[in-house]
Amino acid sequence: MTLPSRRSALPGFSLTLGITVVWLSLIVLLPLTLLALRPWTLGFAGVWQSVTEPRVLAALRLSFGTAALAAAVNMPLGLLVAWVMVRYRFPLRNLADSLIDMPLALPTAVAGIALTALFAPRGWIGALLLPLGIRVAYTPLGIFVALVFVGLPFMVRTLEPVIMEMPREAEEAAATLGATRRQTLLRVVLPALTPALLAGFGAAFGRGIGEYGSVIFIAGNMPMVSEIAPLLILIRLEQLNYAGAAALALVMLLASFAVLLSLNLLRARMRRRS
Amino acid sequence: MNVEMRGLTKSFGPTPALNAVDLSVSNGEFLAILGPSGSGKTSLLRVLAGLEFAESGTIVIGGRAMEGVPARERGVGFVFQNYALFRHMTVARNIAFGLEIRPRRLRPRAHEIRDRVASLLDLMGIGDLGGRYPDQLSGGQRQRVALARALAIEPALLLLDEPFGALDAKVRKTLRVWLKDLHDRIGLTSIFVTHDQAEAMEMADRVAVMQAGRIEQVDTPDCLYAEPASAFVHEFLGEAIRLDCLVADGVARFPGLPSAVLPTACRPGAAIALIRPYEIGFIVRPGPAHVVSVHANGPLKRVRLLIGGVGIEVLSPAEGWTPVVGENCDLELSKARVYPV
Question: How far is CA A111 from CA A96, A149, A156, A216, B269, in A?
């Protein structure tokens, strides 16, 4: 690492960098290192066995699958909401704006209980869906619904500033050049928003993988079917199987890191082009 | 293509942006719409392009009525003030955009599009920039890309909104000459909007002066300068000295200047006379004008005078009679134009 030796107008470069490094180490790196070291008391074979149990694999698949799916569904939904919030002025807009943040502000357990009550077979929506043969509560579908709920604000808040900055003239220019609304959307608007959509996907996905409170009530937590990986970690902790819990946590950490890193690389590549 | 606008009216809330605008542009003409900010000039351009709609009035471009025709079907090239380039596309893709989005049966073949883009890049003098992204270009280069993109669809009419507004003074000067040349070469009917009277007078075949949503006067730069139709046009086109006067019996008289009697067609009553600082002549005889100061200023002298307590500044040729500070003289105002208040 080379440090800039030129004098800068901002004072205290070494001091601020020092604090940054210490703080990052203390808050992020140290706990993660501990997490990475903890499982190996089981030995390599033990760790491998502990994270390849069918129940663990099912939970990981469920957690990552539903988080990815929910984040993906939140892309068009979040885009729509962000677009309307930025481009239109309508009555009660401020109220709607605060509502978007509610999933963030609400204690997740409260959200989980509310969603469960809504989607349980005798809840308002659950009762409507039951005759159609759709069960939401206590199934993977319920987990998906909860993750869409908590992921939406991440998508909307990531997209809003980008849409705000997007010059309207670009769309008008496309129109004067003969583009239909659809062509303008597909060729001008969406490409300009893709980096922000990816960033929003990453944020919603990351939140979805780790989400616990809002999910466990609606999930039903049946092993192999609707049991999420964070819950499995908790179960292992309660069984005092600390190394096993850490092993599972390490796998989740590495997988999330891989996903977020590749998203960031993709975004960096798109940014470099423009 | 000929462009005909009749009775265009549009308002934003209570203030009219366009107030019964009539304007004709003939084929191949380069017309400037000149006016202060808020005069409705950009609204007029946007209504022409179909980006906004007038509440009443008609537009006919090349014999085709534009009522109900959306922007994408008008065949009007539009260069935006901030260029509005597509930032995620290269310069070449930006220019090709209007051709690539055409339905298959109207779309030129890929190699024809490539050739068209290449020749437009050459025409703009930016032949080697096709692979760059807009963020990697200077303001002047972006301006040329925006122009090339608008020209690629072979529009019937080209509209430019403050084409030099975002450029620094030096680039502006070069681009002005370049754009004028370009227009003369391709002969495309073009309308540009500006608030800079020098820009309008230098480039345009005709200038339409707008104020408060109305067109005050449309004329060639020479006629506009020689015969301003209203006090607003007179003052907007350049420095002018404003003298109060009174019109009666077909002549204007000036309080404090008994010798100046100006025949005028202006209606009787209080009026103002406008005269350019270099149009005032000196009469060498004692009179009501008191010389306060004289500054040599290149080929012209800047003479400050007091007339009945009102200060004015006159430009007078360096050779010829030099008024002396402290002396009194008389003034010749025959070139003044009288407008009703």
Answer: 18, 9, 19, 11, 79
| Chain A residues within an 8 Å CB radius of B103 | none
* Max Cα–Cα distance, chain A, nearest Å: 72
Structure tokens at B184: 């003369």
Asked whether residue A6 is assigned to any structural domain, the reply reads no
Chain B residues within 8 Å of chain A (Cβ atoms): 49-51, 70-74, 76-78, 80, 82, 84-89, 97-98, 101-102, 133-135, 149-150, 152-153
pLDDT digit string (tens) for A17-61? 999 999 999 998 898 888 888 888 888 899 999 889 999 999 999
Please give the C-alpha separations between residue B37 and each of A156, A200, B42, B194, in angstroms, as whole numbers. Answer: 36, 40, 9, 9
Q: Do B80 and A179 touch (CB under 8 A)?
A: no
Given CB atoms, is A152 within the 8 Å cutoff of chain B?
Answer: no
CB contact at 8 A, B274 and B241? yes
Candidate from B74, B80, B152 with C-beta closest to A173: B80
Q: Within this chain, do residues B177 and B54 fall inside the same structural domain, yes or no? A: yes
The pTM (predicted TM-score) of the whole model is 0.79
- As for the ipTM of the complex, it is 0.82
Give the burial class of B65: count Cβ atoms within 10 A of its Cβ; 0-12 exposed, 13-18 middle, 19 or more buried. Answer: exposed
Number of domains in chain B: 2
Q: Of B219, B235, B251, which residue sits at a domain end?
A: B235
The contacts of residue A32 (CB under 8 Å, 6+ apart) are A253
Beta sheet of B56-61, edge-to-edge order: B15-25, B3-12, B56-61, B64-65
The pLDDT tens digits of the residues spanning B22-33 come to 999 999 999 999
Query: How many domains would you assign to chain A?
Result: 1
In a domain, A27, yes or no: no
